[in-house]
Structures
1.
Amino acid sequence: MSSFLAQVFKLLMQVIVLLISQPLLGLTLPACVVIVYVVQKWYLRTSRQLRRMELESQSAVYFNILETVSGVQTIRAFGWQDAIAKESSVSLNNSQRPVYLTRSLRRWLNVVLDAVVACIAVGTVWLAVAGALAAGSSQPIVKFTPSGGQVGVALNIILLTNTTLLRLIQQWTNLEVSLGAVARLREATHETPQEESLLEKSKNSIDPDIQLPANWPSSGEIDFSNVTASYNQDTPVLNEVNLCIKPGQVAVICGRTGSGKSSLLMSLLRLLTVRRTGKIAIDGIDLAGLRLDDIRERAFVTVSQDPFLLPGAGLRFHLDPTETLPNKALAEALKKTGLLSLFAGSSYDEADDASTDSLWDRALSSFPVLSAGQAQLLSITRALLQLQTRSSPSSGQYSDHDRGKRMPIILLDEITASLDAETESAVYDVVEEVFIKGRDGAGHTVLVVTHRPAALTKRLRPGQDVTVWMSNGKVERVDPVAVEN
Ligand SMILES: Nc1ncnc2c1ncn2[C@@H]1O[C@H](COP(=O)(O)OP(=O)(O)OP(=O)(O)O)[C@@H](O)[C@H]1O
């Protein structure tokens, strides 16, 4: 913007100096303005289109490079080198076409502006000659007789004006390109569905009559009544689900692939749209009338099928993103899931807490690469820590009588799918100790989605826990865990 303004003022000054040295050139000014206006209009319109084509064709090249880098092993294994090289060179050639056309357009602009300035220069020389002839004539063509110095200054300024005009139009194009980039970013941020806008929407649908107790959920009872839910508005993935899970109960959710097990958990987190004909209540409070952040931050601790890890982020961020827990708690949780020795390596000394101090701010990528199972264990460690932070309402926010213990519901979605039998058993040991039995003897409500219910059977409590069988988005049956004879 500043260089554009600099060119504008430069041009203004040059025109003023030119008019002082050759006032008659002022007559050509309207014609020049019209010509420059028409030329810049054509130039800008074309260069805008070319810039768009350039960006699109370049994105194909970048996409090609990224795809090749990430799939280089596959390319080598299948011997696709020639085909990929050909494809890359085609997209590179295509990306060069708009660049070439843009350069040609600039040259065209140069030539047109040169021609305009050449006309003005011819006019200046003509005025000078006519003025000189007028000096010896009885009937002068022009009454103005410029001095040699004035003609020199005018010609010099004319040459400079040409460059200034060219730069001005190019700066304007650059400004437009930059504004276009800003507009595209704005479009992306406004049109991509944002969690914040969902939160905003959910704020609008909050039921003002619901006074959410600070210790909600205090027991963890879940009641699905006639729940029909879908990802988009058309096909429901949950069909009239009726299910009641008692406080402290473990519900193992089983069923064929695509039967709606994960969707059942997602409907609790309001990641699915639940139709108004049904409702999901936790401890008697309908989730539809609550804020999304209240539901997700207070009511649930979730471990999903796919661990979400950011290699550039620190270990603490992965374990305790809100940075509320002391290092000791992080180390204890990692020890529980067997990951502490992996992260601390040989420097770990069980008797010395300080031996782990350097771990927490190190980026995850600086540790040995985690296997799928180890990544899943890290997610479970995070869940253990989340349970600690979510169980007690933060002290400053609530009055004393409100400050009971929360009992978040634990949602585990195929957490052992990528683990071997031995690690699976170790993980379920932790689940049993921390979630099912609870630290102080009061267990949490736990929903476990699994394809291998047998691995959990021995940890379920006869007469208390249940296995929920799902099929085609419906609850087919609920089997209580049988009492062993
Ligand atoms: N993001 C999504 N958008 C639209 N439909 C989806 C989405 N995720 C799942 N579905 C559909 O919802 C239905 C139930 O899927 P869901 O993931 O709940 O099944 P699942 O029983 O958990 O399967 P799996 O055992 O393979 O995890 C499927 O028909 C699937 O096509």
2.
Amino acid sequence: MREEQDERPTRPDRPREKQRGRIVTRRTQMQTSTTDQRLLDTRGPSDWVHTDPWRVMRIQSEFVEGFGMLAELGPAISVFGSARTKVEDPMYAAAERLGGALVEAGYAVITGGGPGVMEAANKGASQAGGVSVGLGIELPFEQGMNPWVDIGLNFRYFFARKTMFVKYAQGFVVLPGGFGTFDELFEALTLVQTRKVTSFPLVLIGTAYWSGLLTWLRETVLADGKIKPADLEMLHLTDDVDEAVEVVRAVEQSHVPAGGDLSVDGLAVDGPNGDGAGGALPGGPPAQGPNGGPVSPD
Ligand SMILES: C/C(=C\CNc1ncnc2c1ncn2[C@@H]1O[C@H](COP(=O)(O)O)[C@@H](O)[C@H]1O)CO
């Protein structure tokens, strides 16, 4: 290995010095060991592996591996939902159908790689002959990847994993879930609302499950002025797996920014009340961009 630390020739008018990159050291600050020696000498204390600078390297490696694995994935949709959904639950069957339908529509399916809805969506995707991706997370109660993940990567850090869900997907479809699912949904909502991502459909499957949340968002959060009417239009609510896939396709093919008018090619992307308004919420306002107009990509 090449030595990064050069000792400069001594000049009578200057103290001896060593240079490490752009750092110059002299007198007591000059290290006598070389970089290679310090790297290869394993006899020192190992506390450094628990320090933040070292963690930064591990975090960086998660981004590098994630980007490397997913960069050539092609169009994909991230599917979220409860890790606790049982095989007998109708939502398991819905997630399985969704995985297959997304593959038939030309998408890879990305999940958290765990049990429940994740497993079902991976199963549907894999059995349909598509690309079934699992982005697992290290948890205290380790579960391992579900058996239907065909390409998997395990993460230590939630935030690195969450970047992959957004960066390599064209949209999210979210089935009933708990805190983990809410976290993923609300992160996406924030990213769309703040226009960090554009043309990003967010579809909720399960009207009975999600209606209470949507009512609260409209009657409390919106009524209290904490969000704008158009913010609610980012969400599309349905019970129909095929409609969920159509919403995703319509947004992607039209490249209409998320939150924009989703009426495309005669497909009125509709709320559950079938009023053709394009809004997700019963009685919600008609679809338009967050500021009443289209959103320009960065
Ligand atoms: C809690 C159980 C298993 C945990 N295993 C998980 N594996 C992978 N991803 C997970 C897991 N648990 C949560 N997630 C992520 O959050 C979402 C689901 O969370 P929820 O609270 O269950 O809604 C999911 O989309 C994952 O990304 C039980 O067996």
